[in-house]
Design a protein that fits this description.
The protein has 115 residues and is of the alpha+beta class. It has four helices and three strands; from the N terminus they run αβαββαα. The longest helix is centred in the last third of the chain and has 25 residues, at 90-114.
């Protein structure tokens, strides 16, 4: 990912977002940077990470010259599965979609529309 994003924004460096960043508190007050596993990993292994070196989720942003966020990068988390696969398993829905993926997605959209 890093190699490809540098082709688009060669002069920009992704910056790690601290948990105190407004994107984690815009509508829903998140107490942690959520890690959403793919549905297969969650159901088959019961963990939130897909590899040993991916235990920690990272949320980074690219900013323009005026300090406005242009892109958010969600790394070591499968935020998309929390949105698109929620109907496949009730436990997965309640544990990851409802508690983590939807709130963060709503915060991201709200933040983008207000900043």
């Amino acid at each position: 990912f890093y190699f490809e994003i540098k082709r688009v924004f060669p002069e920009r460096e992704p910056i790690e977002l601290p948990l105190s960043h407004p994107i984690f508190h815009a509508v829903f007050d998140l107490k942690e940077k959520p890690q959403i596993p793919s549905i297969g990993i969650a159901l088959n292994y019961g963990v939130t990470y897909e590899r040993e070196d991916a235990r920690t989720p990272h949320y980074k942003a690219l900013y323009d010259n005026k300090g406005r966020m242009m892109a958010i990068i969600c790394h070591n988390t499968d935020l998309g599965d929390g949105w698109e696969r929620e109907g496949e398993n009730e436990w997965y829905f309640h544990e990851f979609s409802e508690k983590k993926a939807y709130p963060l997605g709503i915060n991201i959209v709200f933040y983008a529309m207000t900043h």
